[in-house]
Specification:
The complex is a heterodimer of chains A (655) and B (277). Chain A is α/β, with parallel strands linked by helices. Chain A has 28 helices and twelve strands. In chain A, 48% of the residues lie in helices and 8% in strands. The two termini of chain A are 34 Å apart. In chain B, helix 3 packs across helix 5, helix 5 packs parallel to helix 6 and helix 6 runs parallel beside helix 8. Classes of the chains: A alpha/beta (655), B alpha/beta (277).
C-alpha cells in the first residue's frame, strides 16, 4: 500500500477533519409527525445520505466513507420510555451482531433487488445509488476513470469482477452502518468473494502481488470511519471476517484469497477487519503457521474456531447441517449463521463467581455434595430468571438489513458465561481445604471473604497461589469447571424464547470480566474484592500455570458442544517467542493440538508488556500499539485504564 | 519460577528401597518448563536439575548453581509489607528464613524441589498424549544434570521408550557417569565453551580436560548429538577459540548460541552478583 494513503487515514487521520455533525433532533421531528418506525428509518437514511460529501483519496481504489459524524436517534426519550414499558429492548434497540448475506446482492445488483423490495427499501436503495452517483461524479472530476467505470456498474448492476465486488461490498457495508445497525460483521469473505477473485486471477488481471495490494486497499476501508462505530470501547465494532473452514460436504475451503487476507492483515497491522480462522482436525500445519505469522504482529488475530466441534454443537441446537457448516462469528466469537440467522447472541450473562460465592456462604457448614447440588440449583434459578425477564423483544425496523436476510430462520438467544474458571477455582479450593483436608475452617474462610483477607495473609496466599485452579493441571478444578458448563447447558436446554428460538449457553465473558467482577467481593479462589476475572474461557489472572500445554489440556478437558454460544481460551505469549521460524512452527503445533483435543475456540496474543508500560506513560508515542481486549482488538492508548490494566496483568508465556 | 509440592516421604515405601541411598532416589529440580522451543526436536518439556560444578561468568540460570535449596526472591513488585519476615511455624520455611506462605504478590519461593524419579516421570508423562500427537519430548538441563547422574539414569530409564529424551550438558562429569547417562538419551547437546584450558579455567572455574575427553567419547558413541558454543562477546566468540573448537568438533553437528543479553536478570533473586554486565 502506498504510504501516502496509509498515512492520510491512519497516521494523520486527515479525513476526520471533514466530518459534519448533525444537529437536528430527528426524533422530535418524526415524533411530532407521528411517523412509523420504517418511515423514520427511511427518512433518516435519505437525509443522512444526502448530507454526505464524496471524498476520494488520489491513491485509493475502494471508495466511500462516512463523513456524517453522528446518527440522531429516530425516537425521542419519551417514546423510548413508552416502548420499554411493553418491550424488552436489547442494548441500543437497533439491530446488531448479524451476518448479512452480501453475496446475493453483489451478484444481482441493486436495481434487480429493488424489483422485489418494499417501498421503504426502494427509497433507501435510491438514496444509496444517488450517493454513489455523486461519488462517480467526484471521480470524474478527479480524472479517475477506473473508479468511474466501477461505479457505473455497481451498485446498480451485478459486479463483474473482483474489484467491483469489493466496491459493492463497501457500499453495502457502509449502508448498514448508516442505517444505524451496528456490529455489522463481514462473514465468510474468502468464500463469497472467491469466484470473482479466482476468475480475475485466472484471466491474468492480477498477479499475487497486485491482488494483495487491492485487498489491502479494501482492508483499509474498514478503518477510515470505524472510530464512529463505538461499542463498549473504541475498537469494539464487530467488523469480523471469517476465513477458511469446511463446506457442507466437509471439504476444506481455505484458498489463495484466505491466504492473501491473512497477509494483508499482517502487512497493515490495523484493528479491522478482525480476522477469524476456521480450522478442523484436517487442517494442515502450514495453515496454522500462516496464522501464527499473523499472531506475531501483535493484533490478537487470528482467532481460531474448531469446525469439528462448532458444527456438531450448532446441529445439536437445531441448526441444519448446511447452515451450521456455514457458521461465522458475530462481533467477537458468538457463532451465528450468515443470511438466515436472527439470533441475539449476547442477550444476557450469568455471573458464575457470584452464584458460587452465594452458595458457599450459605452452605459451607453442610457437606460438599449438597453444596454442589445447590450450585446447580442456583445456576438453574439464575437462568430461569434471565429467561423470564426477556419477553416481547423489539427492534427498531431495519429495512436495509432485511434486504440481506430474507429468511430469519434462527431466533436463538445466547447467554454469556462469565468467570467460569474463577467459579470452578473457588469450589476446588473449598473442596480441598475445607472439606478434604479440613485445613481451613468454614468460619475462617467466611471471615476472610468478608474482610477481603485483610487479616489473613496466609489464607490469601493459600487460596490465591497454592490452591488447585483451572489451567494448572488440577483434575478437580477441571471437573468442577465441567460441572458448571453442563449445569449451564442443562439450565437452558429445552426452553423456548419469546421469538420461538432456543437458548444457547456460552463460555464468553464479553465486558463482564470487569463489570461482574467490580460488584463482587472477595471469593474463595483468593480473588480480592473487585478484582477482574480472566477474559472469556481462560484461567484466572493469578493461576500459577505451568505452561501452555497444561493450560490447553485443562480447557479442553470437558465436552464443549453444549456450550455453543462461543468464548475462547486465550493464550498470551511474550512477543519475543515468535522471532524464529522454528518457534513459529512450534506455536502452530500447539494450536493444532488444541484443535485435535476438541477445543472450540482459541485466541493467541503476542504481548509486549514493556511497550504497554511506555504507552501508559507516553500515549502519543504509542498511538499504533494494538492489544486484544475480549473479542476484538483496539488501540491501547484509546482504552480506559481498567481495560489497559487488565491486558497488562494477564500471564504470558516466555521461552 | 514455580514452587513444587515437596516430594513424598520415602519412609512408607517398600522394604527394597531401604537398600538404596536416599540421596540417589531424589533429584533436586529448580524448574520444569513446558513448551521449550530451543531445547531439541519438536516441543520440549525441559527439566532443570539444580547444582553445577561450573561457574561460567555468563550463566543465565544462577538459581541452578548451588546444589541446595535456596531462597528465590522476585525483585519486582515488593510492597515492603514485611509479612514474610515475621517468624512462622511452617517447617519448609525454617531453612529459608522467610515465610513462603504470606506474600500477597507471591514473590517468595524456594529454588529447588526434591523429586522422586518415579513421581517426576509420571508428572512428565502426563503430557505423553501431546508428545505422541505432536512430537517433541523431554529434555534434561540444569545446572549440570550429570551432577545428579544416578537420578538421571533412573529418570531416563523410566522414560525410555515412552517419549523422546534429550540432555543438555557441559560434559563436565566423570566419564562413567557421562557414558551411562548419555547411553539412555535419544539426543545429546553438549557444550564446548572454550578450547583453551587456561581460559576455560578463568571463565568457567574448571579445567576442560575431562570435557574434551567426554567430547571424544560422544563423537564415537553413535548417539545423535550436537555440540554447542555460547557466543559470549570477547570471551568465547573470538576467532581463535571458534577455530579451535571447530577442530575439536570435527565432523559432528555444531551450533552457536547467541548471547542472552538478559542473562543477568535473575542474579539478585538468589543474592548473587553478575559480573558480566
Amino acid at each position: 500500500m502506498k504510504k501516502t494513503l496509509y498515512n492520510y487515514y491512519i497516521i494523520d487521520r486527515l479525513n476526520r477533519g471533514m466530518r459534519v455533525k448533525v444537529e437536528k433532533d430527528l426524533g422530535a421531528e418524526y415524533s411530532a409527525q407521528g411517523l412509523s418506525g420504517e418511515e423514520r428509518m427511511t427518512r433518516r437514511f435519505e437525509y443522512l445520505a444526502s448530507l454526505e460529501v464524496p471524498h476520494i483519496h488520489k491513491d485509493e481504489k475502494i471508495v466511500l466513507m462516512r463523513t456524517v459524524a453522528n446518527l440522531p436517534d429516530v425516537y425521542t426519550e419519551a417514546e423510548w420510555t413508552e416502548i420499554r414499558k411493553s418491550h424488552y429492548i436489547h442494548e441500543l434497540g437497533y439491530v446488531s451482531n448479524l451476518s448479512p448475506n452480501y453475496a446475493t446482492t453483489i451478484s444481482k445488483g441493486l436495481l434487480a433487488v429493488r424489483e422485489t423490495a418494499n417501498e421503504y427499501q426502494v427509497r433507501m436503495i435510491d438514496a444509496i445509488i444517488s450517493l454513489c452517483d455523486r461519488y462517480r461524479a467526484e471521480a470524474e472530476k478527479m480524472g479517475r476513470e477506473d473508479i468511474v467505470e466501477v461505479l457505473t456498474q455497481v451498485p446498480r448492476y451485478p459486479a463483474r469482477n473482483f474489484r467491483e465486488a469489493l466496491q459493492f461490498f463497501r457500499i453495502l457495508h457502509y449502508s448498514l452502518w448508516l442505517e444505524g445497525d451496528y456490529h455489522n460483521t463481514v462473514g465468510r469473505f474468502d468464500q463469497y468473494m472467491y469466484p470473482y477473485f479466482k476468475k480475475d486471477i485466472e484471466d491474468g488481471i492480477y498477479t499475487r502481488e497486485t491482488a494483495l495490494e487491492l485487498v489491502e486497499d479494501f482492508f483499509l476501508s474498514f478503518n477510515k470511519d470505524s472510530d464512529l462505530y463505538v461499542g463498549v470501547q473504541q475498537g469494539d465494532n464487530g467488523q469480523s471476517m471469517v476465513l477458511g473452514g469446511v463446506d457442507a460436504e466437509g471439504n476444506d475451503c481455505f484458498n489463495l484469497l484466505s491466504e492473501l487476507c491473512l497477509e494483508a492483515s499482517r502487512n497493515l497491522k490495523l484493528i479491522d477487519p478482525k480476522i477469524n480462522l476456521r480450522v478442523s482436525s484436517k487442517t494442515p500445519l502450514s495453515i496454522y503457521e500462516k496464522g501464527t505469522e499473523l499472531t506475531k504482529v501483535g493484533l490478537g488475530f487470528p482467532q481460531y474456531s474448531n469446525d469439528d466441534v462448532v458444527i456438531k454443537g450448532l446441529e445439536r441446537l437445531g441448526y441444519s447441517h448446511e447452515d451450521a457448516s456455514n457458521y461465522v462469528v458475530a462481533a467477537c466469537w458468538e457463532f451465528i449463521i450468515p443470511g438466515v440467522g436472527n439470533d441475539i447472541a449476547n442477550i444476557g450473562a450469568v455471573n458464575f463467581p457470584a452464584l458460587v460465592d452465594k452458595v458457599i456462604r450459605e452452605n459451607i457448614n453442610g457437606d460438599f455434595d449438597t453444596l454442589i447440588g445447590k450450585v446447580k440449583t442456583e445456576i438453574k434459578n439464575e437462568c430461569d430468571k434471565i429467561r423470564e425477564s426477556i419477553n416481547n423483544v423489539w427492534f427498531v425496523p431495519s429495512p436495509i438489513m432485511d434486504l440481506f436476510r430474507a429468511d430469519k430462520r434462527y431466533n436463538n438467544f445466547g447467554i454469556h458465561g462469565s468467570g467460569i474458571a474463577c467459579a470452578a477455582d473457588a469450589l476446588a479450593a473449598v473442596q480441598k481445604y475445607v472439606y478434604k483436608e479440613k485445613k481451613v475452617t468454614p468460619e475462617r474462610l467466611i471471615n476472610a471473604l468478608d474482610s477481603d483477607f485483610a487479616d489473613d495473609a496466609e489464607l490469601l496466599h493459600l487460596l490465591r497461589f497454592e490452591a488447585p485452579k483451572m489451567g494448572t493441571g488440577s483434575k478437580e478444578a477441571d471437573d468442577l469447571g465441567g460441572m458448571i458448563l453442563s449445569s449451564f447447558a442443562d439450565a437452558l436446554e429445552g426452553h423456548t424464547n419469546c421469538m420461538g428460538g432456543k437458548w444457547r449457553a456460552g463460555t464468553g465473558t464479553a465486558m463482564y470480566y470487569l463489570w461482574h467482577a467490580r460488584e463482587l467481593g472477595a471469593t474463595a479462589d483468593g480473588r480480592r474484592a473487585g478484582e477482574p476475572f480472566g477474559t472469556n474461557f481462560s484461567p484466572s489472572l493469578f493461576a500459577q500455570i505451568p505452561g501452555p500445554i497444561t493450560d490447553i489440556e485443562s480447557f479442553t478437558a470437558n465436552d464443549l458442544t453444549r456450550n455453543m454460544n462461543g468464548g475462547p481460551l486465550t493464550l498470551e505469549f511474550a512477543a519475543g517467542i515468535f522471532n524464529s521460524p522454528e518457534s513459529i512452527q512450534k506455536v502452530a503445533m500447539l494450536i493444532q493440538y488444541f484443535i485435535k483435543r476438541g477445543g472450540h475456540q482459541l485466541q493467541l496474543n503476542a504481548v509486549n508488556l514493556e511497550a504497554m508500560k511506555e504507552a501508559q506513560a507516553n500515549p502519543e508515542a504509542y498511538r499504533q500499539l494494538v492489544v486484544r481486549i475480549w473479542g476484538w482488538s483496539a488501540y491501547f492508548v484509546e482504552l480506559d485504564k481498567d481495560f489497559q490494566d487488565h491486558v497488562m496483568a494477564r500471564q504470558e508465556y516466555n521461552i | 519460577m514455580k514452587l513444587f509440592a515437596k516430594a513424598k516421604s520415602l519412609q512408607t515405601s517398600s522394604l527394597f528401597t531401604i537398600t538404596y541411598n536416599f540421596e540417589f532416589m531424589n533429584g533436586l529440580i529448580f524448574d520444569i518448563k513446558e513448551f521449550a522451543v530451543h531445547d531439541g526436536e519438536g516441543i520440549r518439556t525441559t527439566v532443570f536439575l539444580k547444582g553445577c560444578p561450573l561457574r561460567c561468568v555468563w550463566c543465565h540460570n544462577p538459581e541452578g548453581l548451588s546444589p541446595k535449596k535456596e531462597l528465590y526472591l522476585k525483585q519486582n513488585g515488593c510492597l515492603g509489607c514485611g509479612r514474610c519476615s515475621i517468624p512462622c511455624d511452617h517447617e519448609e520455611c525454617r531453612e529459608i528464613g522467610r515465610c513462603l506462605h504470606v506474600c500477597p504478590k507471591n514473590l517468595i519461593s524456594v529454588a529447588g524441589a526434591r523429586w522422586e524419579a518415579k513421581a517426576l516421570a509420571d508428572k512428565l508423562l502426563t503430557h505423553k498424549s501431546f508428545f505422541d500427537t505432536m512430537g517433541g519430548g523431554i529434555t534434561l538441563s540444569g545446572g549440570e544434570p550429570l551432577l545428579q547422574a544416578d537420578f538421571c539414569v533412573e529418570l531416563l530409564t523410566l522414560l525410555k521408550g515412552q517419549v523422546h529424551t534429550a540432555i543438555e550438558t557441559s560434559g563436565y562429569a566423570k566419564s562413567e557417569d557421562f557414558k551411562k547417562v548419555i547411553s539412555l538419551c535419544d539426543f545429546v547437546y553438549m557444550d564446548i565453551k572454550l578450547a583453551d584450558s587456561e581460559l576455560h579455567k578463568k571463565y568457567t572455574g574448571v579445567d576442560n580436560k575431562i570435557i574434551l575427553q567426554n567430547a571424544e567419547y560422544l563423537k564415537q558413541s553413535g548417539i545423535p548429538h550436537t555440540f554447542r558454543t555460547p557466543l559470549i562477546p570477547h570471551i568465547t566468540d573470538t576467532e581463535e577459540n571458534l577455530w579451535e573448537i571447530k577442530g575439536i568438533v570435527g565432523g559432528s553437528s555444531w551450533e552457536m548460541l547467541p548471547y542472552n543479553p538478559l542473562a543477568g536478570a535473575k542474579y539478585a533473586s538468589v543474592g548473587r552478583k553478575y559480573f558480566l554486565s
